[in-house]
Task: structure prediction
Amino acid sequence: MVTSAPPERALRARTEEEPGATMSFFDHLVELRKRLISALGAIGLGMVVGLLLSKHFINFIIEPMRTALRANHLADRLYYTSPAGYIGLVINLGLYLGVTIAMPWVLYQVWLFVAPGLYKHERRAVASFIGSSMVLFLCGIAFGYFVLLPQVLTYIVHFANDGPVQPLISINEYFNLILVVLVGLGIIFELPVLIFILSLFGIVTPKFLMKHFRYAMLLITVAAAIVTPTPDATTMLVFMAPMIVLYFLGVFVSYMVVRRKRAAALAEGEAS
Result:
């Protein structure tokens, strides 16, 4: 007697495609409220911790500037130009630190909210997306702090030190500068994630990216010229190098996405 029961592998694949849970609209609102309270509580707690640490963290923040001043044989001190300037810096830095400290928990709450409504393969994709985005953002900040800022600040101070003018660096303006540079680099390092999303929706392909590489190089050069606060070619090349590497990493990511989509389409065609 012939049975029509599906094979064990097909049953396992079908089970993996089942959503995690079914919730009513009211249940979703209750869950959203729970996750928002947890995330906001973590941010509040993180800000308290950040305010306690910020005064000690300032030494870490200003070290690239102090190194640049020492390299040019100048006094390695920064100044605040208003009575509340230093206190305002401590508070602002503490708030930024608090958000940074709480961010892993906030992302985890977002994950807990969206995961029950996703299929198993979607949960894996979202988890990889969040993890890789965080890692690349932190890599961008690390590159800016340890590689780009020392180059840029040393050049800026040396350029001014050649003339009759002495630098008097405001710590508040310096903080605003490095905040823009570090966050900007963190966002730029998300390029492979952006290419991943575009490839997932079929907007770009590896062939398209390689064919239009010269236009990408033009855009990278323009972006480096705009973002780099110094006119020298060396600093601009230091800024361009990771962007080019990230572009080719994005090409590889696009290749993997397209390859998996073709394999899935082929398997689906064979199954039908």
